[in-house]
User: Fold this.
Amino acid sequence: MSAPNTNTERQARRHKPALWGIIIAIVAAGLFILWALLNDGTPLDEQAAGAPPAATETGTAAEVETPEETN
Assistant:
């Protein structure tokens, strides 16, 4: 049994802010999930520096010589 005095136009008007909030929350969650799937976890400073030096057959990447800084 339904309520005898229903004003569906007023109910629709009162529910619009809640519906917009739900839509915004779903979009934000979708964007976060997309970002989480595409993010490889590399810190931004390492992304800007580029790829680390490649390892050689005889040593590791840490043993690769780097140019000396001149003062």
In short: Helices lie at 8-38, 44-49. The chain has a mean pLDDT of 78.
